[in-house]
Amino acid sequence: TGNPPYPTDDPALGTTIMAVVYDGGVVMGADSRTSAGSYIANRAADKITLVHDSIFVCRSGSAADTQALTDYLKLYLGMHSLDLEEAPSVQTAAHLINQLLYSNKNHLMAGMIVAGWDKRNGPSVFNIPLGGGVIPELYSIGGSGSSYIYGYVDANFKKNMTKEEAQTFVKNAVSLAIARDGSSGGLIRTVTISADGVERELVLGDKLPKIGFGQ
Amino acid sequence: GRQERHLSFIISIHMFAVRESGGFDFDLTARNARLENDMKGALPKAKKTGTTIAGIIFKDGVILGADTRATEGPIVADPNCFKIHYITKNIYCCGAGTAADCEFVTANMSSQLELHRLSTGREVRVVTAVKMLSHFLFKYQGHISAALVIGGVDCTGSHLYSVWPHGSVDKLPFVTMGSGCLAAISMFEHGYKDAIEKDEGVNLVRAA
């Protein structure tokens, strides 16, 4: 049909990303698919990027743009924390990346979820959509796969869940999104952040939670 | 009148004579666009390597592989060119896309990293080379058509990365790039295993 048999598109994170506040921390989750058109450039990508010890960013949109943005954010947060002589707040991180995104909105395609734990405010989740703007939420979903799970997360989210409940909630939601969205897939990565530190978990593609579809 | 024209003539000569040093220069893009319009498609094509480049992490390090054909449209411009570029003693980089872009980007990076190595007094880490390359390519927003497979061994272990022309980076145990990447990755998905031995790894890369 005139398409060359090799990828010509810029790698994009089709994606399902989410972050949820539970009693004492946040759980962030993402799929692991990076597509260049219909070719999967990376089937085991890590879309949850560390920008400070207890602050992570879920990335969706252009792979190059979001990697560059989080690199800058990591630099600025590092310098800011030296000035502050303590860990920066999640709110600061969210607003910093928003300034970068909003000022360059015409040249960037990036939707991010900034989440983490800090001493002053405890666990926080901030959604930063495509055009910029910072929206603090108790739970946030993003990426192309998120469209398919709005109903599920709205119906099943509960305030002050335990850590295990929140982790199950995130894995189930991302699993449902992967089932319906062609641009999401691979494995599910989760990052749990609390006062006790950071826990990373992996759910392999063949061990996804069997939820829905009559299971 | 006549004096103004004389002055502007001198100024334009001055601008040509005094070039800013370093970096790429897109001054000729306007001329190229005009030529393309005038010649209506009969322009000579830039040497573009239709390419397969690949890399895997094996038990003791990294194996990089590439084909050696450089094409100018349907003609083989160079049947035996080098697509695996030296970056530092412990890091090499395969390049696909526009041959000139790959050549210059890798040579430029190699030079910068040698200076970096001398000023830090430390062996260059693969992640440093990758960050510098990806930031460089991101700055040019994909106009520098270099798709790279970078691998090397440093004090933190063996590492393999793929870098796309827009600047995104993927860190993986096996990668392929270029027009033959789909065929090559299928060989890797089939035959790759963790801590693969060197001989088996070399044969796998060769096959891919």
Question: Can you walk me through this structure?
Answer:
The complex is a heterodimer of chains A (215) and B (208). With 215 residues, chain A is α+β, with helices and mostly antiparallel strands. Chain A has helices spanning 63-84, 90-103, 150-156, 163-180, and strands at 12-13, 17-22, 25-30, 34-36, 39-42, 48-52, 55-62, 110-118, 122-128, 135-137, 139-142, 188-194, 197-203. In chain A, strands 1, 6, 7, 8, 9 and 10 form a six-stranded antiparallel sheet that branches. In chain A, strands 11-2-3-12-13 form a five-stranded antiparallel sheet, covered by helices on one side. The termini of chain A are far apart. In chain B, strands 1, 6, 7, 8, 9 and 10 form a six-stranded antiparallel sheet that branches. Chain B has a three-stranded antiparallel sheet with strand order 3-2-11, covered by helices on one side. Chain B has a two-stranded antiparallel ribbon with strand order 4-5. Chain B is globular and about 75 Å long. Chain B is of the alpha+beta class and 208 residues long. The mean pLDDT of chain B is 88. Chain B contains six helices and eleven strands. In chain B, a hairpin with a 2-residue loop joins β6 and β7. Classes of the chains: A alpha+beta (215), B alpha+beta (208). Chains A and B meet through β5 and α1 of A and α4 of B.
